[in-house]
From TrEMBL:
The chain crosses the membrane at residues 5-26, 75-91. Keywords: Membrane, Transmembrane, Transmembrane helix. It comes from the Bacteria. InterPro entries: DUF454. This is YbaN family protein. Coiled coil: none annotated. It comes from Sphingopyxis jiangsuensis. Pfam families: DUF454.
C-alpha cells in the first residue's frame, strides 16, 4: 500500500513539474526532486530514469549529494518571485497582495542560503 502511495505521489509531482515547465510561476525542479524521492521508495526503474535525465538528473543529484541549488536556479526563482509580486501588486487587493511578498522573502532567503552546485 505504501509503495502505491509513493508511486502515485511521484507521478503527481512529476505532472506538477511538467506544468511548471510551461507556467512561469510554478517551479519545476522541486517537483521533479520530490518525484525522485517518491520513485526511490516505489519504483527503482523510474528513479533511475529521472537520475539519468539530461535536464533534471544533475539537479536531483546535486540536491541529494550537497543540498545544492545552481546559481541559474536561484536566479530563475528570484525572477519568478519578482513576477509574482508585481502581478499581486497590480491585481490583488490588500491584504492578499502581501502573500507573494512574504513567500518571496521566506522562500528566496532559504534558496539563496543553499550551496551552489556545479549544475
Amino acid at each position: 500500500m505504501k509503495r502505491h502511495f509513493y508511486l502515485v505521489a511521484g507521478w503527481a509531482s512529476l505532472g506538477l513539474g511538467a506544468i511548471g515547465a510551461v507556467l512561469p510561476l510554478l517551479p519545476t525542479v522541486p517537483f521533479v526532486i520530490l518525484a525522485a524521492f517518491c520513485f526511490a521508495r516505489s519504483s527503482p526503474r523510474l528513479e533511475a530514469w529521472l537520475l539519468a535525465h539530461p535536464v533534471f538528473g544533475p539537479h536531483i543529484v546535486a540536491w541529494r549529494d550537497h543540498g545544492a541549488v545552481s546559481r541559474k536556479g536561484k536566479v530563475a526563482a528570484t525572477v519568478a518571485f519578482a513576477a509574482s509580486i508585481l502581478l499581486a501588486l497590480v491585481l490583488a487587493p490588500w491584504p492578499w497582495m502581501m502573500a507573494p511578498i512574504i513567500a518571496a522573502a521566506v522562500g528566496g532567503s532559504w534558496i539563496w542560503t543553499r550551496p551552489e552546485g556545479a549544475t
